């Protein structure tokens, strides 16, 4: 009978990572990523990857100018929120670069035009 009990205990031993996450804090990236992926279709994003990886997609210089707010799937318009009105001329100049980088991230022409909103 004791052999059966030992086999039962060995079969039911949970993974140490599972225990850590069950009783401890999860990494913030895991929590936010799941939340953004659930929220993103409601807000118009084709994928949450644009919002989560914006700086990696467009580069540090462009990411410092604007952040993505919405991508309209029907007409391919990417809406960006400018961090300052004074950055509008520079952002306007970067439109072709933004479209090229976002489209290369998707692998197809998801963005046909870019529109800016100022704060």
First-to-last CA distance: 72 Å
Helix content: 55-70%
Q: In angstroms, what is the radius of gyration?
A: 22 Å
What characteristic shape results from the CA principal axes? elongated
- Can you tell me the residue ranges where pLDDT is under 50 for at least 5 consecutive residues? none
Order of helices and strands: HHHHHHEEHHE
Average of pLDDT: 76
* Beta-strand content bin: 15-25%
Number of domains: 1
Number of separate strands: 3
Major sheet strand order: 1-2-3
- Give the class from helix and strand content and strand pairing: alpha+beta
Number of helices: 8
Sheet having the most strands: 3 strands, mixed
Question: Can you lay out the helices and strands and say which pair or pack?
Answer:
Blueprint lengths: L1 H10 L4 H8 L4 H16 L4 H5 L1 H5 L1 H4 L2 E7 L4 E6 L5 H6 L1 H12 L6 E5 L2
Parallel strand pairs: 2-3
Antiparallel strand pairs: 1-2
General description of the model:
The chain has 119 residues and is of the alpha+beta class. It has one domain. 55% of the residues lie in helices and 15% in strands. It is built from 8 helices and 3 strands. It has helices at residues 2-11, 16-23, 28-43, 48-52, 54-58, 60-63, 88-93, 95-106; strands spanning 66-72, 77-82, 113-117. Strands 1-2-3 form a 3-stranded mixed sheet. The chain is elongated, with a radius of gyration of 22 Å. The N and C termini lie far apart (72 Å). The mean pLDDT is 76.
């Amino acid at each position: 009978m004791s052999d059966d009990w030992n086999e039962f205990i060995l079969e039911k031993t949970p993974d140490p990572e599972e225990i850590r996450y069950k009783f401890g804090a999860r990494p913030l990236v895991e929590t936010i990523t799941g939340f953004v992926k659930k929220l993103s279709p409601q807000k118009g994003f084709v994928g949450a990857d644009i919002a989560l990886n914006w700086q990696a997609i467009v580069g540090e210089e462009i990411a410092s100018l604007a952040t993505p707010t919405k991508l309209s799937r029907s007409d391919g318009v990417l809406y960006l929120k400018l961090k300052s009105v004074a950055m509008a001329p520079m952002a306007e100049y970067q439109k072709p670069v933004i479209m090229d980088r976002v489209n290369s991230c998707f692998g197809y022409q998801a963005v046909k035009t870019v529109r800016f909103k100022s704060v």
